Amino acid sequence: MKRKLPVVPLKRIRETATYKKMTITVPDAPVSEVLPTSMIFYVDTRFTTIQTNRIRSLIVQALGQWRTHFEQLEESGYSNYQGCVNRYARFNLAPVGLMRSLLMEQ
Questions:
Q1: What is the structure's pLDDT at 4?
Q2: Helices in 1-106 by DSSP H: which ranges?
Q3: What angle do CA 30, 34, 40 make, to 5 degrees?
Q4: Is the whole-model pTM more than 0.70?
Q5: Are 14 and 27 in contact, with CB atoms under 8 Å apart?
Q6: Residue 106 and residue 101: Cα distance in Å, rounded?
Q7: Residue-wise DSSP of 87-106
Q8: What residues have CB less than 8 Å from 79, skipping those under 6 apart?
Q9: pLDDT tens across the length of the chain (106 residues)
Q10: Non-local CB neighbours of 28 within 8 Å, separated by 6+ positions
Q11: What pLDDT, on the 0 to 100 scale, is given for residue 10?
């Protein structure tokens, strides 16, 4: 017979998050809208310095890809990103969870 362990109620802890301001410069891109010179992100201070640097790096890389997309569009009217999206868009690909919810509705 299994021995039952007593249930111990969990204590609620109060932890308030604090944030560190991260400013990232927006690269110039050939777009018709006026762009801000920088973007501000607030990063939780519980992230380590290495994690914060990685977050910054990922944001900068995403903005770089965005700029490359618009530069290619301006030069040739076509971008590598657009080609990739168009290739897979015709298959009506969707996340698995979305497909399950659609099947449940029927």
A1: 79
A2: 49-76, 80-89, 96-105
A3: 105
A4: no
A5: no
A6: 9
A7: HHHTTT---HHHHHHHHHH-
A8: 68, 69, 70, 72, 73
A9: 677 777 888 888 777 889 999 999 999 888 888 889 999 999 999 999 999 999 999 999 999 998 999 899 899 988 888 887 777 776 666 555 555 555 565 5
A10: 35, 67
A11: 80
Amino acid 83: pLDDT: 83
Tokens read off for 48: 């380590």
Tokens at 27, concatenated: 């690269």
- Distance CA(24)–CA(56), nearest Å, equals 8
Amino acid at 99: M
Residues in the chain: 106
Q: What angle do CA 37, 80, 65 make, to 5 degrees?
A: 25
